[in-house]
Amino acid sequence: MSENDFKYIIDTFFTLFSMVLIIFMVPGFAMLEAGLVRTKNVSSVLTVNTMIYAIASMAFLLVGYSLAFGSWENSSMSIWAAFLFQMAFVGKTVNIMSGGVSERVKIIPLLIFTVVMAAGIYPLVVNISWGADFLAGTILDIDMYDLAGSTVIHSTGGWALLAAILVIGPRKGRYYKGKIRVIPASNIPLVVLGALLLWIGWFGFNGGSVGSISSIEDANAVAKTIMNTNTAGLAGAIIAAVIMYLRYKLLDIT
User: What are the contacts of 219-224 at 24+ separation with CB within 8 A?
Assistant: First the structure.
């Protein structure tokens, strides 16, 4: 076996493993959202999360990937592994939006939007950043570095959410006479399970975005990226707990 063959195999395995970790975020989002909504809406939220993964992935397979990258060619790893890794990201863009409109949107319109996002909006954003870049050589061409989608994924999903909530408005019963009314979560253990599944998924999300692990330099970059990702989560949990205790004199897991 040649050195190039070995690197090809290792990077393919690494990419597939990272993809599996990212897919853990599917039940992560589902459990987190289902635990935070009212009991009467749990089934709807679970249905939406399952269908977002299925529909977004299929739309990206049939249309989105080619629109984003121009071709399926890849010399550093299996083309199927490269596709699956990119496919794992797509549903997360929609999940950012769907979680923010829980209990305020019907299933069918949200699934129609999922097709539009996965087959059109998201691939176009990928095209001008990670992908084929149809703006190359034009006055609109920009030099942007985005390791794991802070703009490509999270900003795109965030703008979609902003547009949605401007149209839909707040949840019924959320505000009363200018005051915020707390809506009790339906299942706290599901909230914690979902959060920790998302935490694990981030290791594949960020670590896998390094793109290769078949050299000492790349392996160190992957390990450092995952360490930084985990450290950020640790710090976020501690700081959130401290702020909450100082302000409310209690610790609330939600």
Answer: 222/14
Residue type, 161: L
Alpha carbons 68 and 56: distance in angstroms, whole number: 14
Q: Apex CA 102: angle with CA 32 and CA 198, to 5°?
A: 25
- Quick check: is 231 in a domain? no
**55 assigned to some structural domain:** yes
Q: What local confidence, expressed as pLDDT, does residue 14 receive?
A: 97
The candidate with the shortest Cα–Cα distance to 230, out of 210, 209, 200, 189, is: 200
| Two tokens, residue 242 | 């401290």
Which pLDDT tens digit goes with each residue over 192-219? 999 999 999 999 999 999 999 999 999 9
Contact (CB, 8 A) for 191 and 36: yes
173 and 183 in contact (C-beta within 8 Å)? yes
- Tell me if the pTM is above 0.85: yes
pLDDT of residue 32: 95
Domain, as residue range, for 131: 3-215
Tell me how far apart the alpha carbons of residues 185 and 171 are, in angstroms, rounded to a whole number: 14
Which residues of the chain fall short of a pLDDT of 70? Answer: none
Q: Is residue 101 part of a domain?
A: yes
Structure confidence at residue 180 (pLDDT): 83
What pLDDT is recorded for position 150? Answer: 84
88 within some domain: yes
**Domain with 40 in it: what CATH number?**
1.10.3430.10
